[in-house]
Design brief:
Layout (H helix, E strand, L loop, with lengths): L2 H11 L6 H15 L2 H13 L7 H21 L6 H25 L8 H13 L1 H19 L3 H6 L2 H16 L7 H18 L4 H13 L7 H18 L4 H21 L4 H18 L16 H28 L10 H15 L5 E5 L18 E5 L2 H9 L4 H17 L6 H17 L5 H18 L5 H21 L6 H13 L7 H6 L9 H13 L9 H4 L1 H4 L6 H10 L15 H4 L6 H9 L4 H8 L4 H5 L16 H9 L11 E3 L4 H5 L5 H20 L5 H20 L5 H5 L2 H20 L6 H24 L7 H4 L4 H23 L14 H4 L40 H19 L9 H14 L7 H13 L9 H8 L2 H7 L4 H10 L1 H5 L9 H19 L5 H17 L7 E4 L2 E4 H5 L8 H9 L6 E6 L2 E6 L2 H19 L5 H25 L4 H14 L4 H14 L5 H7 L1 H10 L20 H18 L3 H10 L4 H7 L1 H18 L3 H18 L6 H10 L1 H9 L34 H14 L7 H6 L2 H17 L3 H20 L9 H18 L2
Helix pairs in contact: 1-2, 4-5, 5-7, 6-7, 6-9, 7-10, 9-10, 9-11, 10-12, 11-12, 11-13, 12-14, 13-14, 13-15, 14-16, 15-16, 15-18, 16-18, 17-18, 17-19, 18-20, 19-20, 19-21, 20-22, 21-22, 22-24, 24-29, 24-30, 27-34, 29-30, 29-35, 35-37, 35-38, 37-40, 38-42, 40-42, 40-43, 42-43, 42-44, 45-49, ...
């Protein structure tokens, strides 16, 4: 031990000295020693070494605790009855003691967290739980907790769920029952931070938080300090945003409870803007929870605990918002100086949501009591309020707001509200209001007053144009009025383009009008793009693109020829050439001036390749066909199952939470997958496109002129050079796509060489700038250039769907360009290391996580492993107070140099990923290896924020879906993964990001090859370890959701679970089994995420011939998957929750159950019947809502192409009744069957409609008493019911007798035969039908018996065709079994022979018997054909065709005998039936 540490040790030993003067002397000495550099260095070293016998920071902390304890005991034992001076001295002493602890902790952790989190928390909790010490040091210790523990990320991640709970309970108690000395602002700040930590780092404390906020908000009206309310509201919003997915009903109830309080605070206390922001956020969240995606009624997915109270609250909130908007206008009128006119977006959004809810009602005026917001009991309907006021409702309010004043402050808020209301809820705008509002907006626009209103008017008009395009209910008069208005608005908008203030919005409006075909563009519109009215911009180019796609382009325009007559000589200028010139900023050589501004096309960023496409389209004969070709849906959109509606702008308004709510109530149906998704081919379209070579040559001339313009400029920024090169490559690529030129020709063209020269110039700039990275100007310029390069590369990959399509662009880049960028990355990493060395500590990471193979994942993510101890987790600045510790992923951790490094790394990754299959100037493999070397070199520093970002970028961007990375490179890439996960296993945000970023690795091509065994093992270890942690409750819902997505990716890659097996503690778990565990997760979002992808357990994705084939998995795998999924989802229904949570849990878990079963029905014909029976069973066992079940089944039946829900249910009713009666539970009787799914209102209707299905099943089970009860219920004779159902009953029992006669006996059939004998004997009894009546009925109903018998045909594909089962060769491996009972074709033929042998006249065959009455044959053929027409299932149609074949073969064998004179009919019927069957086959 060094001398200074020895002195420190002796000093600490004196802390518990009984003499106060000695203690005071020693503590002063302690303060001096603890600041000694030598002591600090030695304590740091000892703390890192973990040597138990050396003095370290933890040991010093224990000594200091003893000192504080000693001083506290002395203070507590002192005489309370002393003078004021003595009391003041004691107070000063208490402050000194608290300051000593604060001073020590901050000095110890100044270079990174050295003290143990658990020791700190225990000391603070013990101190604050003691009444005396809490009063003495409570404020200081609370400050320590807030600034020195909760703001340190390492400590933040180490706090356990129990500790979060204890801390919250402690501070909740302080807040709700404060002492006179309590600093309520500090307590509220700590509560805000604790709630954030609890929500993001743990789960299970929801009920505690609900109880606290309910109590806290009751007293909010009496709170005088706004800062306290603001912190509590912030905490409440954090909590509600996190828990709302799981606890929607409780969130709504809490909202309805505290809503009046917040309305009162808003109206009566005049809160600050920051508090208003929090209140608005709360109101918005409540509207999203009550009315997801604007749903107005419970039938559409809305919810309220008390609908009448909620409606009153909405009216009150509406009144307050209208008043707030009015106040904004009045404040603007009388404010001095400049004031921002617009209302904040969150208030506008809230106003639009409220208006949507209330405007659609019939009520135009609502009478509100003045006490509506005064108390929570104001809506209890007791008594009559003394004062009332009228609240105007409806679109008239909007129109009045737009018209009543010409002041911008009055008008603009209503323009904003109208814009959002129309954009968010276009279907709710009445057709007549479109005309009225459009008229008002036209009047405002035509006034052309100065001010800020015009851009808002134009935005509003744009949304109304979109809204009108979606309306199909406009009558002729309305359409004519609108057409006239739009024509006037069009003319005014064209003039607005010349104003820089309104240019962007004007083009937006023109584009919307063109998209909706609301008017026809005139010549003035085309002149915009052929003269100098405005320069090309993103909005202008989008508008031009829309015009070319929707309208016919004129060849000539008056005024253009004269304008260009001088420059073009005698040849007149065409409109196409004029637009090309305008886009490219073309200037003839004689007009070029020195220091002229560069053209906009190289100075600005434009949408993905849109300028290139427009230039090429202008050189084609048919511009519209060209735009259709380039804007056709991309391949990846088709693969993902996207539709245009799914990418509609409206979806951006609604949150993921709202989608989940509507999925839970099944008002937003799951995306039921189809069998085949074809990729749209564009080759046939391209073959119809032809080019005008004169215009093509003209375009090349203009592009070369643009090149010369840049070369002649005095100074061209490198990003402009890159943009110009990208433009040229885009044009060449477009010509290549439509077949005008080949890629090889493009690479040898003059334009390509010019583009390459620009990239070479940009590369020279990089070479000179890489040594000047400390200059901010160079740094910013490099970052801009790299960003532009990345955007250009992405624009090629995005538009052309495949990364390989960017090869033409990548061929511009020389090897030196890429190598210089790699060198810049190395320099920036070195720069970052130097800048962080002063504050970074050495890593202390145990490598237990690496040993997973031997001990199981639980040993690698256990609590004994040490997590990260670095400076990135030690930030405790005051700026973080109140919000928790700053994430290591936060951008605030990065410098400008770091951002440049990450942007450069991202660009290089994209280049290597896209260039793997093409010969380029640089070798992708070399660049990739150099990038991987960066993480190899920095492996020991991956704990730093920058290096973590670097590694995440490599994980996400390096893998390519099209190309296979070498296994060595893969191994390098995943090598740090296990250590990284071990390091951050307690940081939920980082864990979630890591799992999200490994998704590309799981989907990459070749990951399932044998060479990737090592990589597979590491990825599976990572996922397995996270799953093990999640089972132990150490992963929050966000991490588990990311885990579900990873497992879904694994299922898609390996549907048969050949290698996707998790090894946990020497046990192996296939991912397909583990995946279903998430169906009983504790969080609703995780369960639904797993449920929505359950089809991956039944289907595998295969890509063949440019189409995605969803192929069914083998039958055994499907059966196992169904049993597993149903078992897990039913296990999830057996939950243990408190009474408060019960309602939410019931609703959510039932939604999961129904989602799983409905999706299985749609994706697995094999399990369709089982899944449907599972729903019927769940209706009884899980008390499901029949209305909700019917809503789901209607969607399923539509997906499966059934005509109706009833038709769907009837097609499976035999199976359902068969399984229902087989259940051992006595409660499964016919009256308990869910006949409501058959649209039967009562039991009698059910019996009367379906007794022909019910009675045979009851009879075969020997349950004649139930048959008698059916007859009694429908007031019929039970014997008549039996006689009516005899054909079906005979079809059930005759095959058993025939099989005995044909083949002897075996186990199962012997039992069936015995049961059939009992049933037949029962029927023969005189008390029943009797032998004579059975014979008579059988003779008269022989055709019906034959039809019913044929209907039991089913040749299982796993049967051997060698045993007389000739039809098995026509059976598919995935053919589902029909309704029971069913028999193979040999048994059916044997039964038909058995029937003929039982006939009294002993005919040779059944056909001979049927031929005696020719109508019998026709009846049978007609019945089979009708059955084929009625069924919706392709599998059932196929089975019916085999029935038809079997019977027709019997007829054809005896056709020479004439078939009773109907042989011609039989032949004709067979031919016509087969032709109809072939033509109707999909």
């Amino acid at each position: 031990m060094s001398l200074v540490l020895h002195d420190l040790y002796l000093c600490c030993r004196q802390f518990d000295n009984d003499k106060a003067t000695e203690r005071k002397k020693e503590i002063e000495k302690f303060k001096r020693l603890i600041r000694s550099p030598e002591a600090i260095e030695q304590l740091d070293r000892n703390s890192e070494s973990k040597h138990p016998k050396q003095l370290n920071w933890d040991a010093v902390f224990r000594f200091l605790q003893r000192y504080i304890q000693k001083e506290t005991e002395c203070l507590q034992a002192a005489n309370p009855n002393v003078s004021a001076t003595t009391q003041a001295n004691r107070q000063k002493k208490m402050q000194e003691i608290g300051s000593i602890m604060k001073y020590f902790i901050r000095w110890a952790n100044k270079r990174g967290p050295r003290l143990k989190c658990q020791d700190l928390l225990k000391h603070i909790m013990d101190t604050l739980q003691n009444r005396f010490s809490c009063a003495a040091y409570g404020t200081d210790y609370s400050s320590i907790l807030l600034k020195d523990i909760l703001s340190v990320r390492k400590y933040w991640c180490e706090i356990s769920q129990q500790q979060w709970s204890d801390l919250m309970n402690l501070y909740f108690k302080m807040y709700l029952r404060p002492s006179k000395d309590t600093n309520r602002v500090l307590v509220a700040r700590i509560i805000h931070t604790l709630v954030r930590g609890c929500c993001f780092q743990s789960e299970g404390l929801t009920s505690t938080l609900f109880e606290f906020f309910a109590k806290a908000m009751q007293n909010a009206r009496q709170e005088q300090v706004f800062a306290v309310i603001e912190h509590i509201m912030s905490a409440l919003n954090v909590f509600l945003n996190v828990c709302v997915m799981n606890c929607r009903i409780r969130v709504c109830k809490l909202g309805e409870e505290i809503f009046p309080t917040l309305l009162c605070i808003w109206t009566q206390k005049r809160p600050q803007d920051s508090l208003k922001e929090e209140i608005i956020e709360f109101f918005r969240l409540q509207l999203h929870a009550h009315h997801p995606k604007g749903a107005k009624t419970q039938e559409k997915g809305a919810f309220a605990a008390d609908w009448l109270k909620w409606q009153h609250l909405l009216y009150s909130l509406y009144e307050i918002i209208v008043s707030e908007v009015s106040h904004i206008g009045s404040r603007g009128k009388y404010s001095a100086g400049m004031r921002h006119v617009a209302v904040k977006d969150n208030l506008v959004d809230l106003a639009a949501d409220i208006c949507h809810q209330l405007f659609g009602q019939d009520t135009k005026v609502f009478v509100s009591s003045v006490t509506d917001v005064d108390s929570p009991q104001s809506h209890s309907h007791q008594g009559t309020p003394s004062k009332r006021r009228r609240i105007e409702l409806g679109w008239e309010v909007v129109r009045d707001g737009l018209q009543k004043s010409q002041n911008d402050f009055d008008m603009i808020p209503w323009l904003q509200i109208t814009t959002v209301l129309v954009a968010k809820y276009p279907s709710s705008v009445p057709p007549n209001e479109i005309v009225a509002i459009l008229t008002i907006l036209h009047q405002i626009l035509s006034q052309q007053r100065r001010g800020e209103r015009i851009p808002y008017v134009l935005r509003c008009l744009s949304e109304i144009a979109v809204c009108q395009r979606l309306k199909s209910t406009l009558n002729t008069a309305q359409r004519l009025d609108l057409q006239k208005l739009w024509a006037k608005i069009w003319a005014i908008t064209l003039r607005s383009i010349s104003s820089q203030q309104t240019e962007v919005e004007s083009f937006w409006l023109l584009e919307a009008i063109l998209h909706g075909s609301l008017t026809v563009p005139d010549k003035d519109f085309w002149k915009i793009f052929s003269c100098s009215t405005c320069q090309p911009s993103s909005s202008a180019v989008k508008c031009l693109s829309r015009a070319l796609a929707k309208c016919t382009l004129p060849e000539q325009l008056d005024g253009i020829a004269e304008h260009y007559l001088i420059t073009m000589g005698d040849r007149p200028q065409t409109l196409r050439e004029a637009i090309m010139r305008w886009l490219l900023g073309y200037r003839p050589e004689e007009d070029i001036e020195e220091n002229v501004e560069l053209p906009s096309v190289v100075r600005r960023d434009f949408p993905n390749q849109l300028v290139s496409q427009i230039l090429v389209v202008l050189s084609l004969k048919d511009c519209r066909a060209g735009m259709d070709f380039f804007h056709s849906p991309l391949a990846e959109s088709a693969l993902a199952g996207e539709s245009p509606a799914e990418v509609d702008k409206g979806n951006t308004f609604f949150t993921e939470t709202e989608h989940l709510f509507l999925q839970t109530t099944f008002d937003e149906t799951p995306n039921y997958s189809s069998t085949v998704v074809s990729v749209k081919k564009t080759e046939s379209v391209a073959s119809r496109i032809s080019v005008k070579h004169v215009l093509k040559n003209r375009l090349e001339e203009y592009l070369l002129a643009l090149v010369e313009c840049l070369h002649s400029a005095a100074m061209v920024p490198p990003e402009c050079q890159v943009r110009c090169a990208d433009l040229i490559i885009g044009v060449l690529r477009c010509y290549s796509d439509i077949g005008v030129t080949s890629e090889d020709d493009a690479c040898t063209s003059a334009l390509f060489q010019k583009a390459k020269s620009f990239i070479l110039d940009a590369g020279e700039y990089i070479s000179t700038a890489k040594n000047k990275l400390n200059e901010e100007l160079k740094l910013n310029s490099l970052k801009t250039m790299v960003t532009v390069c990345t955007k250009c590369l992405h624009s090629h990959t995005k538009h052309w769907a495949k990364r390989s399509s960017s090869a033409l662009f990548l061929q511009l880049f020389p090897a030196r360009f890429m190598n210089d960028l790699v060198q810049i990355c190395k320099q920036l990493i070195a720069h970052s290391g130097k800048s962080h060395n002063a504050c970074e500590a050495k890593d202390d990471i145990q490598d237990g996580f690496r040993e997973m193979q031997g001990n199981g994942s639980g040993d690698f993510f256990n609590d004994n492993d040490k997590t990260l101890e670095v400076g990135d987790y030690s930030d405790s600045s005051d700026s973080l107070v109140g919000t928790g510790a700053k994430s290591i992923l936060a951008e605030e951790n990065l410098t400008k140099h770091d951002f440049l490094l990450l942007d450069t790394l991202r660009f290089l990754c994209c280049c290597t990923a896209a260039g793997q299959v093409h010969v380029l100037s640089f070798r992708s493999s070399d660049i990739r290896r150099k990038l991987l070397m960066l993480i190899e070199e920095q492996d020991h520093s991956i704990s730093k924020s920058l290096h973590l970002h670097m590694y995440l970028i490599l994980l996400k961007e390096l893998p390519s879906e099209e190309c296979v990375l070498p296994s060595d490179d893969f191994s390098i890439l995943v090598k740090p993964l296990l250590d990284l996960c071990s390091m951050y296993r307690c940081d939920q945000e980082v864990c979630s990001v890591i799992l999200t970023h490994i998704l590309p690795l799981l989907t990459v091509q070749g990951i399932d090859s044998d060479e990737m065994t090592d990589v597979q093992g590491k990825l599976l270890k990572t996922i397995g370890a996270f799953w093990h942690l999640s089972k132990g409750g150490k992963c929050n819902a966000q991490v588990r959701a990311a885990l579900v997505r990873c497992m879904k990716a694994l299922l898609e890659k390996d549907p048969h679970s050949k290698w996707t097996v998790l090894s946990i503690r020497d046990e192996e778990f296939p991912v397909s089994d583990v995946y279903t565990e998430f169906l009983r997760d504790t969080h609703h979002q995780v369960r639904m995420l797993a449920a929505m992808s359950v089809s991956r357990l039944f289907q595998e994705v295969q890509i063949q011939d440019q189409s995605v084939q969803l192929k069914a998995l083998p039958v055994k795998l499907q059966q196992k998957a169904f049993e597993n999924a149903y078992m897990k989802v039913q296990a999830g229904m057996r939950f243990q929750n408190s009474a408060e949570e019960l309602q939410d849990e019931k609703c959510n878990r039932k939604a999961t159950l129904l989602t799983v079963i409905s999706l299985i029905m749609c994706c697995s014909p094999i399990c369709e019947k089982q899944a449907l029976f599972a729903i019927c069973q769940s209706l009884k066992e899980n008390k499901l809502d029949p209305t909700l079940v019917k809503k789901i089944l209607e969607t399923v039946s539509k997906c499966l192409t059934y005509r109706s829900l009833e038709n769907f249910m009837v097609s499976h009713l035999d199976y359902l009744i068969h399984e229902w009666l087989r259940m051992a539970d006595s409660g499964y009787n016919l009256p308990a069957f869910p006949y409501v799914l058959l649209n039967c209102s009562n039991l009698e209707e059910f019996y009367r409609s379906y007794y022909k299905i019910l009675v045979p099943h009851l009879t075969v089970n020997g349950n004649l008493e139930e048959v008698k009860s059916i007859a009694a219920c429908i007031k019929g004779n039970w014997k008549e019911l039996l006689a009516d159902c005899l054909p079906k009953i005979m079809a059930y029992i005759l095959p058993c007798f025939a099989y005995q006669d044909k083949n002897g006996s075996d186990g199962d059939m012997a039992q069936q035969r015995e049961n059939a004998s009992k049933v037949f004997d029962m029927l023969k009894e005189d008390a029943c039908l009797g032998k004579q009546q059975i014979d008579l009925l059988s003779h008269n109903s022989l055709p019906e018996i034959v039809v019913e018998l044929l209907n039991t045909l089913y040749d299982s594909p796993d049967q051997d065709a060698g045993y007389g089962i000739e039809l098995v060769k026509f059976s598919g491996a995935m053919d589902p079994a029909p309704n029971p009972p069913y028999f193979p074709s040999p048994v059916i033929r044997a039964t038909l022979e058995y029937i003929s042998s039982c006939h009294k006249e002993k005919f040779k065959s059944l056909v001979a018997i049927l031929s005696r009455n020719p109508d019998s044959i026709q009846k049978i053929l007609l019945a089979i054909s009708k059955k084929a027409v009625d069924t919706s299932s392709a599998y059932e149609k196929h089975r019916i065709l085999m029935m038809y074949r079997l019977f027709v073969n019997l007829l054809l064998k005896e056709i020479k005998d004439g078939l009773g004179g109907v042989w011609a009919f039989v032949l004709r019927d067979v031919i016509y039936s087969l032709i109809h069957h072939i033509n109707s086959w999909p």
